[in-house]
Automatic annotation (TrEMBL):
<feature type="domain" description="Amine oxidase">
    <location>
        <begin position="14"/>
        <end position="461"/>
    </location>
</feature>
<protein>
    <submittedName>
        <fullName>NAD(P)/FAD-dependent oxidoreductase</fullName>
    </submittedName>
</protein>
<dbReference type="InterPro" id="IPR002937">
    <property type="entry name" value="Amino_oxidase"/>
</dbReference>
<dbReference type="Pfam" id="PF01593">
    <property type="entry name" value="Amino_oxidase"/>
</dbReference>
<dbReference type="InterPro" id="IPR036188">
    <property type="entry name" value="FAD/NAD-bd_sf"/>
</dbReference>
<dbReference type="GO" id="GO:0016491">
    <property type="term" value="F:oxidoreductase activity"/>
</dbReference>
<comment type="similarity">
    <text>Belongs to the carotenoid/retinoid oxidoreductase family.</text>
</comment>
<keyword id="KW-0560">Oxidoreductase</keyword>
Length: 467
């Protein structure tokens, strides 16, 4: 193995792998360093009791058909030179936003949500159409920070606070590191990816996408080192000169692309960081495994975004481990899989906001008790939110698991278990060091597609084009 690379990428998540592929395609030597044994970062997978569980992937957003050349998903296939078939994408059946006063159904056809809003919020349909036009016309992928927030924009366009909250609920849960709001460009990216393009999923889940990226990286000559953590980034005179690894060895490099996060990367450089910049938002997720399709219980939506409380709040819970009053319920069985290619078991995943500090303070025994208790309580929430089951699901339950903010921190390295990183983003990817750049969550693009686009964009700008 070499001790010098043109480019070193920190992290084998979606952004890191995509960045490394672009770098290798440009003829540069590149290595990806990952401190864990499994690639994928926030979107990985693990085995337990003979089953493979996805971590992170509810759906691949930004679904697009083959001929839509401007679609972000198709741009990824072109930039990485990966055939579309390698991702094995199957569109959703249909999803729903459920609040106490109203319910809105949507599919990968934007007309469905527009019809729902025209029916349930007729006074707001013109404002909603203005939002759609704005989203379609705005270039939200520019690597600049315009300092605008989505909340004031939505209040200007849509008068009814219930509809505003219902539209924000999926968007915040699928990408906001800011409580109760998000950057306007991030809103545009997520609105387009959820409501104008939509959801899809490989039959085998996220490992299909990870395998495709790893295969391409190998084909183009990129290297990957697993269980290879970075102890510190070596700097001199405003430049990064190399990396000291956890085993004490060093690598020299001309450029570093880090997907470790803004605060985490700065701390690797020896820069003392204000811990207030660490993201506040983390989640728990329960995974229930059934021996039959959840559709047999009358649960037919692909994804349900819900709030049982008004006003809807997207905040870290202050007084408890978990806020059970809002969240996301995903049923991976409900995608349009080809005949004979369906999931072998039924899966129901429920995600809710959690308090990292409270989970962290629990002694080991109390931590396990809390996981058991909150698994039970969140199943009760699912029963409250989803349609009344046509038969008792508990008799079909054959497996379960749950992750907490501590799980997220352990397997991603994100301080505080902050799934979406810091609320402060570096959209241009720049740091205080001239050859060290950020990609991934804290660069500002969102979701699996966004993460890959982030890696591609940063690699193109600072390595391929050489800005």
């Amino acid at each position: 193995m070499s001790d010098y690379y043109d480019v070193v990428v920190i992290g084998a998540g979606m952004s890191g792998l995509a960045a490394a592929i672009r770098v290798a395609l440009a003829g540069k030597s590149v290595v990806v360093l990952e401190k864990h044994e499994a690639p994928g970062g926030l979107n990985s997978f693990y085995r337990q009791d003979g089953r493979v569980f996805d971590v992170g992937l509810h759906a691949l957003t930004n679904y697009a058909e083959k001929g839509q050349k401007r679609a972000p998903l198709n741009k990824i296939f072109r930039q990485l030179r990966i055939p579309r078939e390698a991702f094995d994408l199957n569109p959703q059946v249909g999803s729903r936003i459920r609040f106490p006063e109203a319910s809105l159904a949507f599919t990968n056809d934007p007309a469905r949500l527009e019809e729902e809003i025209a029916t349930h919020f007729p006074d707001c349909i013109d404002g909603y159409r203005e939002v759609v036009r704005f989203v379609e016309e705005r270039d939200a992928t520019a690597l600049t920070d315009r300092g605008e927030m989505a909340g004031p924009f939505l209040r200007e366009k849509i008068a009814d606070p219930l509809l505003r909250e219902m539209l924000l609920c999926p968007i915040l849960y699928y990408g906001s590191a800011t409580e109760d709001d998000l950057d306007l460009d991030q809103f545009v990216i997520l609105f387009r990816s959820l409501f104008l393009e939509g959801f899809s999923r490989p039959v085998e889940g996220v490992r299909t996408i990870v395998r495709a990226l790893l295969k391409k990286l190998k084909e183009v000559g990129g290297e990957r080192r697993m269980r290879c953590g970075v102890a510190r980034i070596l700097t001199e005179s405003g430049k990064a000169t190399g990396l000291e690894l956890d085993d004490g060895t060093t690598l020299r490099t001309g450029t570093i692309l880090s997907s470790a996060g803004l605060v985490e990367t700065n701390e690797l450089c020896g820069v003392r960081e204000d811990r207030e910049r660490v993201g506040r938002l983390s989640f728990v997720e329960t995974i229930s495994v059934y021996h039959e399709n959840p559709g047999n219980f009358g649960w037919e939506d692909t994804i349900t975004f819900f709030s049982t409380r008004r006003p809807f709040r997207y905040q870290r819970p202050q007084d408890d481990l978990v806020d059970p009053c809002s969240g996301v319920i995903c049923i991976p069985n409900h995608y349009q899989y080809e005949e004979g290619r369906s999931l072998k078991e039924g899966l129901v995943r429920l995600t809710a906001l959690a308090n990292y500090d409270r989970w962290k303070s629990l002694p080991a025994e109390e931590y396990q008790v809390a996981k058991t208790d909150w698994f039970r309580r969140l199943q009760e929430v699912a029963r409250e939110v989803l349609p009344v089951p046509t038969k008792d699901p508990t008799h079909s339950l054959v497996g379960r698991d749950m992750f907490t903010p501590l799980t997220v921190e352990k397997f991603t390295g994100h301080l505080g278990g902050a799934v979406y990183g810091s609320s402060q983003k570096a959209k241009d990817g720049r740091t205080d060091f001239e050859n060290l750049y950020l990609c991934g969550t804290d660069q500002g693009f969102l979701g699996i597609v966004g993460a890959m686009l982030s890696g591609i964009s940063i690699a193109n700008r600072y390595v391929v084009a050489g800005e």
